[in-house]
Each structure stands twice: as structure tokens, then as C-alpha cells.
Amino acid sequence: MRREHLTTFAQHPTPFYAYDLALLRQTLDAAKAEATQYGYHVHYALKANANSPILAEVLERGFGADCVSGNEVRRALEAGFTPDQIVFAGVGKSDAEINFALEANIFCFNSESVQELEVIQELAAAKGKTAQVALRINPNVDAYTHKHITTGLEENKFGINAWELEELVPRFSEWPNLKLIGLHFHIGSQIMDLTAFENLCVRVNELQQWFEAKGLVFPHLNVGGGLGVDYQNPDGNPIADFAAYFAVFHKLLEKRPGQVVHFELGRALVAPSGTLVSKVLYLKHGQKTNFVILDAGMTELMRPALYQAYHKIENLSSQLPPMTYDVVGPICESTDCFSKDTELPETKRGDLVAIRTAGAYGEVMVSEYNLRDRVKAIYLD
Ligand SMILES: Cc1ncc(COP(=O)(O)O)c(C=O)c1O
Ligand SMILES: N[C@@H](CCCC[NH3+])C(=O)O
Fold first, then answer.
1. Which residue of 37, 66, 339, 365 is most buried, as measured by CB atoms within 10 A?
2. How many other CB atoms are there within 10 angstroms of residue 334's CB atom?
3. Which residues are noted in the entry as substrate-binding (predicted)?
4. How far apart are CA 229 and CA 234, in angstroms?
5. pTM of the predicted structure, to 2 decimals
């Protein structure tokens, strides 16, 4: 993180999220350029970060919105996404959320179970509407990522199992208010090994053939998101390899003539542009361990506590020789630890610390635990 930000950062009460809008724009432009050359459509996954200035940048590039709750659908509409740009996934959509999305005439429900399809049919019929639906199929494909953020294995709760499809397909004749327009897949998040996406393509091709044998060809295919970012080296590698990612699908996915392919990227679009900035409250020198105690904790960035996720930590104020620290927060939990055995320049009370690559699944996951104040955001232009 460039030290030139230090003066700006010093003017704001800590902790806060700082978003680099220039990097965000470059990232979005890179994704857009790579997707467009193949005619692919990107829906931004709001769950990664739903702050209005970020949504405004996403919207400006003509991306759609991938939502997983009624409130995300509402936020997308408020941000200016048109209903036909909005898809709604989620394994537990409530009746109120489905009704809200029906009223809003969203583009598509990515439906995750047979029972949910029955409910959407019932609620759509009551309103005299037709709901467009895609089947989220659990492809049973390994994402080779952290087990807590894998979604496409049969042991995961997400999607309809392939073995349920034989019985499911004929039931659409009982559901006049549902229009089946596509298939949806999402195998997991922070995927760095593109083999996982290759395997997904193979599986999608098989499933498309299975449906075609039943006379069903869909206008839409949604292959989800999941592309990872380089948490280790945020300055060396600030933009995800969108070229390699989309090329996998171009090479392997058997797109039918006229078929539209959708992607739902979240993390890769926003993670690198966000930094959690925190101040050092105290130093504690134990017998074995030196602790840096920050004014930000797991309540502001939960990923390290939840998934032992790595975020690069930098002391922006000090240029002293390095020492080894455990960097922890103020929350009353032993898991409130950002990193162990971390080399930082010798650190003092009052130093500003940057916790990098926190633009995705950072601010959206804040918690009020310990009655913490809601963390603020600033935008660097
Ligand atoms: C259905 C669905 N689509 C898209 C995403 C976005 O994933 P990512 O942020 O890894 O691109 C997720 C989250 O994993 C998801 O569950
Ligand atoms: N929240 C997770 C990823 C889950 C993505 C949504 N299915 C993370 O911080 O890495």
C-alpha cells in the first residue's frame, strides 16, 4: 500500500475501509474487456460488497446484479440496476423475498430445490405472473478451495442434485407460472486452480446433452463466479487473470447457437481495491509472542477468524527494522487474530496498519458483537 495515502488516512477515525476507486475501475474494465470479446455477460455478486459507490461503478460498465436476498434485490434496484439485469439465487428464499422479487419483475430466480419451485409457482400464480427460473444444479465438481467456501459438492447444501432431475423435469407441466429459461452452477469461491472451472465446463456440457435428449435447449447458461485473487501479493498482482479465466469457458463450454452465457463474479471484481485501515492501540510483549493489538477486529473483517484466511498486513507508519508479531483485535475471542508470526517493522502505539485485499466479504460481513460501532468507508479517487 502506498505510503502517500498516510496523510489521507491520518485524517479519519479508525478503523475504516478505504476503497481505491482507480483500481476498482481498472479491474472492472479488465473483466469487461475479456468477457465482452466472447459475448459473455457478467452479473456482479452483490454479496461481496454492496456499497453504493462500488455498485455505481459496476452499473456503469453494464454488468448485471447477482443477489442472494430480498434486501440485495432491493439494493440493486435502488442502485439503478433494471429488473431485467437482476438474478436471485439462495438456498432459503423466504416467501416475502420471493414475493418482492416477483413484484419487481426480476430477470430470473436461480432455484435451488424442487420445493422452492413449488413455492415460486404458487406465489407467482397468486399474482397472475410468470416467473423465469433457472435450475441451480449441484454439479458435484470439486473447486479445490477452502472447504468452508466450496459449494458445488453433493455434501454442500446448494443446488438441485443431478439425480433429482429425471423426476423434476416432467413437473414443469404442472407449473404454468414458471418459465424454465436456463441452468445455473456455482462451485465455490477463491478458486485459483482453473482446472476446477475446466471440470465444471465438462459437467455442464454433459448436463446440457442430458436435457437436449429430453428436447430441452435453454437460452441461458449461468456458470456462477468463484475466480480467486492473489491475497499474498496485492501490489504485484492487483488484477485477477480474467483473460485466462474466460478463455477456459471459451475453449471448453459447449455454448449452443444463440445461447447467452452468464457469470457471477464477486471477489475478483472488488477484493483488491479494499483495505481495512486500523490503528495500533497497544503492544504486548509476552514470553514467546509479541502482540500488536489493533482497534479493528474480527467484527470488522471476519475472514481470518472464520476461514483462517490470509490478508497481507502492512505497517504504514514505521520503517524500523522488522520484528515478529501476532496481530490481533480487541474482541473478546481468542480467534480474533488477523495473523500469527508476522514480520512487521517494529511497531508502536498509534501506527497505522493496512489489512489488504479486503474489498470483498469484508464490510458486508461486519458484526456488532461486543456492541461495536459500524465501521465506516472512505473512497480514494
Ligand atoms: C451463487 C453464487 N454466485 C456467485 C458468487 C460469487 O462468488 P465469488 O465472489 O467467489 O466470485 C457466490 C459466492 O460464492 C455464489 O454463492
Ligand atoms: N464469504 C466468503 C466466500 C463465500 C462466498 C459466497 N458463497 C469469503 O469471505 O471468502
1. 66
2. 8
3. 267, 303, 307, 333, 361
4. 8
5. 0.96
Residue 349 corresponds to which amino acid?
A: R
303 is in an annotated binding site: yes
Close Cβ partners of 320 (under 8 Å, ≥ 6 residues apart): 345, 346
The residue ranking higher by pLDDT, 140 or 369, is 369
- Residue 307 is labelled as binding a ligand: yes
Instruction: Tell me how far apart the alpha carbons of residues 233 and 230 are, in angstroms, rounded to a whole number.
Output: 6
Q: Tell me if 310 is assigned to a ligand binding site.
A: no
Which one of 42, 187, 189 would you pick to mutate in the ligand 1 pocket, going by the greatest count of ligand atoms within 8 A of its CB? Answer: 189
Q: Is residue 90 within 8 Å of 99, Cβ to Cβ? A: no
Task: State ipTM.
Answer: 0.98
Q: Which amino acid is at 29?
A: D
Q: Which residue ranges form the domains of the chain, and what is each CATH number? A: 3-12+272-380 (2.40.37.10), 21-270 (3.20.20.10)
| Burial zone of 170 (CB within 10 Å; 0-12 exposed, 13-18 middle, 19+ buried) | exposed
Share the mean pLDDT of the chain.
96
CA 173 – ligand 2 centroid, Å? 36
Beta bridge partners of 277: 16, 354
pLDDT of residue 155: 74
Query: Which pLDDT belongs to residue 51?
Result: 98
pLDDT at 1 over 70: no
Q: How far is CA 220 from CA 180, 181, 184, 247, 265, in A?
A: 10, 6, 9, 19, 17
Cell triple for residue 210? 442430458
Render pLDDT for 291-315 as a digit per residue (tens, 0 to 9).
999 999 999 999 999 999 999 999 9
In angstroms, rounded to a whole number, what is the distance separating the alpha carbons of residues 315 and 100? 46
Q: What φ, ψ does residue 144 adopt, rounded to 5°?
A: 50, 50
Cis geometry, peptide bond prior to residue 219 (ω within 30 degrees of 0): no
The strand pairing partners of 377, in sequence order, are 17
- What is the rounded CA–CA span in Å between residue 134 and residue 204? 14
Centre of ligand 2 from the C-alpha of residue 149, in Å: 6
